[in-house]
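Slide 14.
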Amino acid sequence: MKPENPILSGLALAGGLIFLSPVLYSIWMSFQTVNAYYSGGLEFTLDNYQRAVGQFNFARYLLNSVIVSGCVTVTGLAVATMAAFAFARYRFRGGDLLFGATVATLMIPSHISLIPNYLTLAEVGLLDTYAGLILPAISNGFAAFFLRQYIRGIPKALDEAAYMDGATPLQVLWRVIVPISRPAIFSMGLYIFISEWNNYIWPLVAVGKEDLFTLQIGLARLYRINPGEGLIDWPLVMAASTITILPVLAGFLLVERHLVRGITMGAVK
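Slide 15: predicted structure.
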């Protein structure tokens, strides 16, 4: 193995620090008092985090975001994996047309579906519920397309061997396809989780009860907390933003190895 080039390592480190500088600055700001921030002084405090969690109910918002994003990720992955398996392994009448329609959904802006989804959920009484936040996000055309491309690269001989041993299609999917496709599934799971975690428009439209607000709505509300005339309590906002970042960062660190393999192998296949 060739020794590391110190120049390249230094450039990579510098590039990483530049890329992370906004995040590091926001974390630094979150430990400042609002007076120190606007006066240019230094005064460290944990009060911003205590106020965000206690006074402004961010513990509840965090729980809501974890529930909604987690359910959307698990359910969306299950649906996308089954759809991808069907598209990749079975030939049926109208299959190509159905797959084309699935891919075509990627070209439709998500905001177009806001009113139909709202009216549909209002008709069945699911507004202001967890189900109303979760159900519209379960279908994910990109996840089905990505996983279908990955599964197509898996040799069909493995499926045929399992069928000869008496396995059902669901058993082949669960015991053969899913273990081999784990890198792609983890990668897509992180993508779905982050997308839903950062979703702001739909929770804002579908929820009116504060007990069901997600972190993104809570962050927007903090802009109205003014320490003085025409001022925004930026240290408080940055503390809440840091709380919002932590679960996503933890998820990324857990699946980083699978993420790189999934994206690379999926792109090649």
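Speaker note: The chain has 14 helices and no strands.
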